């Protein structure tokens, strides 16, 4: 028989263990070895779900990750333009990497609370947090820099450009409309087939985008 876990037990013993593991996963660099026991964390989540603490645990997890992403966003805001793209790429990669560990650790909570009670999915919820707290706040600074980098050879590596563009498309497919030509280089079939009669319109759209970038302080 499992011992009863009171809300006090959860707050003083169980959540602190989870909190510290999540911290390590969110801040690790790719390829780092983290000294946490996945088995222990997995079992911790399982016990809390069985003892009806899913709602509290979900709320704590969302709050924890939201706070982390708000810090990430502030750090990005303070980045100089020449480091901005690279730092955004690192933040995106680090977070998506962390989710590959965090989501499986909370599989019981996902199955018995998020999917059944909330009709949602933990991974989708956590990706949405990154979209809301980081990507949406930076897209209007990032996009002109990406377009500028694209027209300047060797300014950033092709792999960085590909990671960011694919990442943005995953977060919010409609962002394609901000820079269709850029997205179409990395994502197949995002543009409708070109029609000869519309070529002048494409050229006009391109000129309009160039003018907007110049107005926002970006030289050709």
From TrEMBL:
Superkingdom of origin: Eukaryota
Domain Cullin N-terminal positions: 15-171
Keywords, alphabetical: Cell cycle
Tagged with keyword Cell cycle: yes
GO BP of this protein: G1/S transition of mitotic cell cycle; ubiquitin-dependent protein catabolic process
Cited InterPro entries: CACUL1 (IPR042652), Cullin_N (IPR001373), Cullin_repeat-like_dom_sf (IPR016159)
Pfam families given in the database record: Cullin
Any one GO molecular function term: ubiquitin protein ligase binding
Assembly: Interacts with CDK2.
Family membership: Belongs to the cullin family.
Role noted for this protein: Cell cycle associated protein capable of promoting cell proliferation through the activation of CDK2 at the G1/S phase transition.
Protein name: CDK2-associated and cullin domain-containing protein 1
Native source organism of the sequence: Grallaria varia
Gene: Cacul1
């Amino acid at each position: 028989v499992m011992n009863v876990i009171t809300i006090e037990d959860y707050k003083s013993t169980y959540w602190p263990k989870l909190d510290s593991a999540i911290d390590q996963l969110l801040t690790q660099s790719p390829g780092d070895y983290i000294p946490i026991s996945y088995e222990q964390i997995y079992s911790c989540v399982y016990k809390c779900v069985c003892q009806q603490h899913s709602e509290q645990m979900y709320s704590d997890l969302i709050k924890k990750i939201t706070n982390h992403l708000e810090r990430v966003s502030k750090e990005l805001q303070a980045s100089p333009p020449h480091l901005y793209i690279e730092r955004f790429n690192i933040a995106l990669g680090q977070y998506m990497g962390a989710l590959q560990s965090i989501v499986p650790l909370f599989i019981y909570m996902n199955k018995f609370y998020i999917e059944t009670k909330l009709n949602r999915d933990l991974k989708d919820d956590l990706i949405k947090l990154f979209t809301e707290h980081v990507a949406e706040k930076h897209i209007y600074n990032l996009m002109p820099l990406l377009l500028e980098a694209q027209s300047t050879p060797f300014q950033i590596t092709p792999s960085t450009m590909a990671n960011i563009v694919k990442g943005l498309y995953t977060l919010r497919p409609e962002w394609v409309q901000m820079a269709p030509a850029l997205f179409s280089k990395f994502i197949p079939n995002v543009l409708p087939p070109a029609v000869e009669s519309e070529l002048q319109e494409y050229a006009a759209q391109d000129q309009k985008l160039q003018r907007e970038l110049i107005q926002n302080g970006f030289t050709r």
